[in-house]
Each structure stands twice: as C-alpha cells, then as structure tokens.
Amino acid sequence: MTEFMITISRWARPTLDIVIIAYLIYGTYRLLIKTQAIQLAKGAALLVLVYAGAFFLRLDTLSWILSLLAPGLVIALAIIFQPELRKIFIKLGQGGIFRRGQGPRSTQLDAILHAAEILAEKRRGALLVFVRYVALDDIVERGTKIDGEVSSALILSIFEYDTPLHDGALIIKEGRIVAAGCFLPLSEQRDIKRSFGTRHRAALGLTEGADAVVLVVSEETGAMSLAYDARLFYNLSLTALRKRLGQLLEYSGQPSMDEGAVDE
Fold this sequence. Notes:
- With 264 residues, this protein is an alpha+beta fold.
- It folds into two domains: 2-97, no CATH class; 100-263, YojJ-like (1.
- Helices cover 52% and strands 15% of the residues.
- It has nine helices and eight strands.
- The chain has an eight-stranded mixed β-sheet with strand order 2-4-3-1-5-6-7-8, with helices on both faces.
- Helix 2 (38-56) packs antiparallel against helix 3, helix 5 (106-121) runs parallel beside helix 7 (152-159) and helix 5 (106-121) runs antiparallel to helix 9.
C-alpha cells in the first residue's frame, strides 16, 4: 500500500505541476488579449531572445550594452504601457471575492430597459453606466449627485428632455442612481467606425480603463448597445440586452456573444 501511494504521488505531483503551469500560461494569455497588452509581451519576448542570442553566441559588446540598457528599458516599458498595465491589475482584481456590491435587482433592470426602449423609439440619446468592481468616484464627483432609486420615470426625466444633464452619463451603483451629467473619457482606439458619435466613443473610453458596463442609446439611429472590456456590442435586441446585463451585473465571468450582435 505504501509503495502504491508513493507511485501515485510520484505521478500526481508532476501532473498537478504541469496543469497549474498550463492554466497560468493560458490565463495570462487571455488577460493580455483582453487588455490589449499583447504588444508589451511581444516586446519583452523580443528583448529576451536578443539577449539570449548575444549570450550564447558570446557577443560580448552586445551583451554589455543590453546589460546597461536593461534597467532603463524596463522603466521605459512601464511608462509607455502604463495604461495597459493598469488594465491588467484591474482584471486581476475582478474576482468574486473583491466584489463591491450587488447590481440592480430584476425589477430595476426591467425599469432601466423600459426607459431605454422608450428613449430609443424617440431617438433620444442616453448613456447609462453600471459600476462593477472598480470605483468611479472621480467621475461621479465631477457630475451632479442624485442618490435616487432606479426608476423609468427618473431616467426618462433626465434624458427625454433637453435638461442640463442630458448630454452626460448617468451612473448606477448598487441599484441606485448616484449621479448624472457625468462626462466620460473618450476612447483611444483608432479603428472605431466614423459613424459612431461621442456617446459610443465615451462608452468605449470608460471601459478601456475600468470594468464598468455602459448602455448606449444612439440619438441618430435609436440602436441600443453595450460596451464593456474595451469592446462595443452594437445594436442589441431588448432580449439580448436583458440577458447580457443580467449576466454581467449579477454573476462573475464573461457571457457568450448572442446571435445577431455586432462586435465593433
């Protein structure tokens, strides 16, 4: 029995070791892809290959130069890719154990979508931001604080008419409307469709630096879209919106794309 256990242990440990390493490599790869920091990994890999080649080929001068430049290159990469590194650490903190609070209840979500549907039919643009793990206190502070219950009437009163808060974003946190008239950072992406206006660019801009979910109602077309993880899912149906928001705001993990959604 003892020999059997020793044999099992001898095989189990390397297997477990390989499985954990493979999972970490796969998780790191997915993290880099989601944060668009794959260029950082490619640059680091290239430097390692050049240094390894210089070491094995005994290119003393090149090795000496790289040794001198290495600390400065690390600092330069950290500065250049600071936004990407920030996104990586944001992603690392998005586990259930770090959850800040609950999303809107089912009845509140229905009220939000009902208001969005009315705004879409009337071609009234709107931006509704759902806070998840990463706080948006700096954005809330620059807006008009409300701290009110989520309701269709309140959302419509802000966006349906030309009020001073109409052009900004409405922030929803833990089932309450905390602020309105908030201005979001515009996207840094260069491949956005030219037909997308400021609202879509602002929705993408916020999700590039935070894990918030943004519901966008287009003033030009009435299309309802969702932005999260630095991606825009354009012109979703009401059913798809309800399902996607329910998954994003109540559960951890990435929902799958619904049929008919267009990823921009």
